[in-house]
Amino acid sequence: MNSHFSLAVHSLTLLAHQPEKAASSSFIAESASVHPVRIRKVLSLLKQHDLIQSKEGAGGGFVLSHLPESITLWDVYQVTSKGTLQPRCPDENPDCSVGANMKHVLGSVFSEGEHVFGEHLDQFTIADMLKKCITN
Amino acid sequence: MNSHFSLAVHSLTLLAHQPEKAASSSFIAESASVHPVRIRKVLSLLKQHDLIQSKEGAGGGFVLSHLPESITLWDVYQVTSKGTLQPRCPDENPDCSVGANMKHVLGSVFSEGEHVFGEHLDQFTIADMLKKCITN
DNA sequence: CAAAACTGTAATATTTATAATTACAGTATA
DNA sequence: TATACTGTAATTATAAATATTACAGTTTTG
User: What pLDDT, in 10s, does the model give residues B20-41?
Assistant: First the structure.
């Protein structure tokens, strides 16, 4: 699983944690121990899909577009990581019936698998993540 | 998902395809368009878990330890890729309640998720893979 | 108005992960 | 005893992820 996903969940959970004020990329970056530019890139994706809103300029930053209860991990996964479950396959080899088809065959198994996995992720919201973090 | 998994499934499917004779790492490597040493490394894992047997020397190679109908993709996943679903998380940050716990919280979500995903993979056997490849 | 604190994004450099390659010891076959 | 294999370690090459630098554009605030 790519790290965009965990950074996105991390960021959204932080935003849920302080709903009163916008969080800057530096603030989030420090919490997640990564570079601010990386945060801005990930959050740019989330913004494109209207999970968050951003505001430029002094005192600006990021806020949630929706209630934390209504954003699921599956929503986040779809934005940041769709397709990454797929196993990397070598090039197709037309000279071998197995080599020619394996990529496609595994591809369909993993597409279904992603759907099943998605139903699991859909059970958890950003509000759940925050609660789990705080009560630990 | 790491590529060991797809190489392992590819190899096992090839072995199922020609049950009468042992397949060499070079033969498998050519079918999968990768380097023979890489195949030997992956198959070494499968051998350790008794999915296959190997024979050294001229005319040697690899054969299945069990019927293709009895080896599932979940068996293979467990040997080659267990834990790889887990999203990469940055270092824990003790100064932030979210940063301190996110890795652990996501970890448990993904452990359960891997289990759900595993039940899906467990529905498919190497025999199924071969059939899908050949009838395409 | 000008300085400060932000986002947005591109370009580059660094680090890490994957994969290929080389090398060679050991084993069975013929 | 030459040949065709496995097993594995060490090295090199390539690709992917990440950090860093740079800077233009946007608000806020003194």
Answer: 999 999 999 999 999 999 999 9
